[in-house]
Specification:
19% strand, single chain, 3 helices, alpha+beta, 3 strands
Length: 81
């Protein structure tokens, strides 16, 4: 397992607005992005600080809850109400 400082962080544009969100592994983000149709995937990807998909294992992606839901990423236990 890599140290946290070995990861580079990317984030959705909604982080600047102060909304709640979580970190996801870049490889998980890419996997869910690839499941979307092309137009939806392009719209979603334009909301995230860009990175090369080959670098996904070294990336942490911070996503607001709405972006995570759009990608159908799993809700973490700590977020469940």
């Amino acid at each position: 397992m890599k140290n946290e400082q070995d990861y580079r962080v990317r984030e959705c544009l909604h982080r600047a607005t102060g909304v709640a969100g979580e970190y996801y592994r870049g490889s998980e983000y890419v996997k869910h992005l690839q499941r979307m149709n092309t137009d939806a995937a392009m719209r979603m990807a334009s909301n995230i600080t860009p990175f090369f998909w080959a670098d996904a294992p070294q990336i942490l992606v911070w996503l607001c809850r709405n972006c995570a839901a759009d990608l159908r990423l799993p809700v973490r236990e700590s977020d469940a109400a």
